[in-house]
Amino acid sequence: MQTKIEKIDSSSALAIKIIEDQPEEKLDFLSFREKLSLCNISHAEKRKEWATSRLAIKDALDSFDIPYPGYFKDEHGKSQSMNGRGFVSLTHTAGMAAAIFHQDNPVGIDMDLIRDKIVNIGFRFLDSSEVDFLEKDPLHYTLAWSAKESIFKCQGKRGVSFRENILLEPFEKDSKVIWGKIYGTDHDDHHFQVRNRIMDQTVLTYTIW
Questions:
Q1: How far apart are CA 78 and CA 109, in angstroms?
Q2: Which of 94, 72, 92, 86 is nearest to 11 (CA)?
Q3: H or E stretch including 196?
Q4: Average pLDDT, the chain
Q5: Which of 42, 73, 148, 177 has the fewest beta carbons closer than 10 A?
Q6: Which residues, 6+ apart, have CB-to-CB distance to 188 below 8 Å?
């Protein structure tokens, strides 16, 4: 799989790409500001991750014939369009990068490797009610972590605690949809529908506001 592009609906698409070296000519679409940002990344692997994630955004936009506008990070670290149109979210993990685009609503996307050690650190990001329904299984815990990460990215503000402000409803390991909500913040009672898929040893989740 070099690139996988999926139309979610008439307004949204996601793209998944293998992280690899990108020839300079493939990055001509980047804005001047983005090219400067790329030049300032000294670590070779991080440069590949950064460039591949931007190509993933472009692939998602191309599926709607929307020109790539360039993106910058706001004061909360969320990627924003330079022309103020549409919403994106980016993620990467070992070997893969992904991006999601929506024309009208905020989005969040996350990818994580399934690792055994996550079960031992669940107390750091899980409410006690979530610990009660989750199996002591790395997949179940990774799904919970990733769902919260996607919700966090979608709401787009710093200062939101995974354990204290994001609550997931009970779900099974094979559930394709995970429901969650933010509480104790300005977004009280907003419910998020998080979709997920498992690719080998990687979990991918995404949500649309």
A1: 12
A2: 86
A3: strand 190-199
A4: 95
A5: 42
A6: 182
Would you say residue 1 has pLDDT above 70?
no
| C-alpha–C-alpha distance, residues 162 and 42, integer Å | 31
Backbone angles phi and psi of 17, in degrees to 5: -135, 150
Question: Long-range contacts: 28-34, Cβ < 8 Å, 24+?
Answer: 29/58, 29/68, 30/54, 30/68, 30/70, 31/69, 31/70, 31/71, 31/82, 33/70, 33/72, 33/82, 34/70, 34/71, 34/72
Q: Is residue 169 exposed (0-12), middle (13-18) or buried (19+ Cβ within 10 Å)?
A: middle
Q: What is 3-104's CATH number, 3.40.50.980, 1.10.3380.30, 3.60.20.10, 3.90.470.20? A: 3.90.470.20
Q: How many residues does the chain have?
A: 209
User: What stretch of H or E contains 23?
Assistant: none
User: If DSSP codes are grouped into helix, strand and coil, which group holds residue 88?
Assistant: strand
- CATH value of 110-208 in 3.90.550.10, 3.40.30.10, 3.50.20.20, 3.90.470.20: 3.90.470.20
CA distance 149 to 197: 15
What's the confidence (pLDDT) of residue 186? 72
Question: Six-digit token pair at 139?
Answer: 């997949």
